[in-house]
Here is the input.
Amino acid sequence: MIFHVGRLRKAAFLATALLTAACTAAAQAAPYVMFRDPSCGCCHKWAEHVRAGLDAEVTVREDLPMEQVKAGMGVPMALVSCHTMQVDGYVIEGHVPAEQIERLLREKPEGVKGLAVAGMPMGSPGMEMGDHVEPYEVIAFGDFGTRVYASYP
Here is the structure.
């Protein structure tokens, strides 16, 4: 059997291209799963913000007690808010802006387990009330503790 170097190179190139495309599609298809309490109204507004800002499908779950969800995902008590989302191995707690989620998924900073906006600050995504905006911080958390990831406005 005779192998042609040109054909082998072409086959290797095609295999690499297919693998790269598959990996890229898998990263883009990472599921966004938001857990919320059925009685909370702002969570749907925040999910719409994420859908629009990240062009992502957000699955909403209301089947688990929120205390169980937050404890199981390691959300620090000081950072608790009304809803919790999982995406690509990260935890997103509360009204985190889509642009910061996108940044997290792009940069993948070492040691960061998630991002949080504690409480429900007015003017954060899903908590819009006219022109009223309270300053707030997006906090990164992980084994290192916590640190400011972004500040608004």
User: Anything to note?
Assistant: Confidence is low (pLDDT under 50) at residues 3-27. The helical segments are 5-28, 42-54, 66-73, 98-107.
